[in-house]
Write a structure and sequence with these properties.
Blueprint (H helix, E strand, L loop, with lengths): L10 E6 L6 E5 L4 E13 L9 E6 L5 E6 L9 E8 L11 E6 L4 E2 L4 E6 L9 E12 L8
Parallel strand pairs: 6-7
Antiparallel strand pairs: 1-10, 2-9, 3-6, 3-8, 3-10, 4-5, 4-9
């Protein structure tokens, strides 16, 4: 069981609004464990024809994929869609008012060395589509006696 010490200073909100990039990743620092609380992804697609597929991928420290969460619908060219991922939310299969909701596991823990990747798995126009990502994690420090095995 992972330690649970939720306190305001244990919350971290990460934002990446770099333009011309629809493939972003983060790695859990060596002395931390993260629990993913929510993620918000906004993709502004170019006019390049093709359906974009937003995915969240968790990989272990050896780059083995542990979990893939795909949005419930694809995004066409020349569109802006905001994807919201929260625990317990039903997976929507169509965009409503520019938003699409999806579910993540309630206790999604990422040990030190794990990575979180958010990207357009179809890679339609990866160097030109603009993707903004924000997510919040609950962080906990690992101790010398802690082991992930």
């Amino acid at each position: 069981m992972y330690p649970r010490t939720l306190a305001p200073n244990n919350l971290r909100t990460v934002r990446d609004a770099a333009a011309n990039d629809s493939d972003k990743s983060w790695t859990v620092p060596n002395d931390e464990i993260w629990r993913l609380l929510w993620a918000s992804v906004t993709l502004v697609s170019t006019a390049t024809v093709g359906n974009r597929q937003i995915a969240i991928v968790v990989s272990d420290a050896s780059s083995n994929v542990v979990l893939t969460i795909n949005a419930g619908a694809v995004q066409a060219a020349s569109a802006t869609v905001r994807y919201l991922f929260f625990p317990g939310v039903p997976r929507e299969t169509s965009v409503a008012v520019g938003e699409l909701r999806g579910s993540i596991p309630a206790d999604l823990y990422l040990p030190a060395g794990y990575s979180l990747r958010v990207y357009d798995s179809a890679a339609v126009d990866a160097a030109a589509d603009d993707m903004t990502v924000a997510f919040q994690v609950e962080r906990d420090q690992t101790s010398p006696a802690y082991s992930t095995s």
